[in-house]
Write a structure and sequence with these properties.
two-stranded parallel ribbon
Length: 118
């Protein structure tokens, strides 16, 4: 996806949200219930509701498009996005942190493993 010179923390957070939706699609996406996504970047959360063109907004469009594929119009499931302080105590966060640190060092996933939308 590029180096840290190519992306801001804001953009990286949104890419992380896109990757979560991809994982949910692959794993069956919270069959029958609600899903909660904890984000510690308030600007990224606010941008999800904005319909204005901002730097990096194309990533929000990708997130929304991928989410519509996961949760169809007639589907009762929903995804709740909420602010969390540093992700402490959230199941799976330690694994996500390990992968984020690897990506920051340039150990990116092969393009074939990334969502097609990215």
């Amino acid at each position: 996806l590029g180096s840290e010179k190519d992306h801001t923390i804001y953009k990286v957070e949104i890419v992380g949200m896109i990757l979560v939706v991809q994982i949910l699609k692959e794993k069956g996406g919270g069959a029958g219930g609600s899903m909660t996504l904890g984000i510690n970047n308030q600007a990224a959360i606010k941008a999800m509701a904005a319909f204005s063109s901002q730097p990096g907004h194309y990533l929000i469009n990708i997130f929304h498009d991928d989410l519509r594929q996961l949760i169809q119009t007639d589907d009762a499931r929903k995804l709740v996005i909420r602010w969390t302080l540093g992700h402490k105590g959230i199941v799976g966060n330690e694994v996500a942190d390990i992968h984020a640190k690897r990506a920051a060092r340039g150990e990116s996933s092969p393009a074939s493993k990334l969502p097609k939308s990215l």
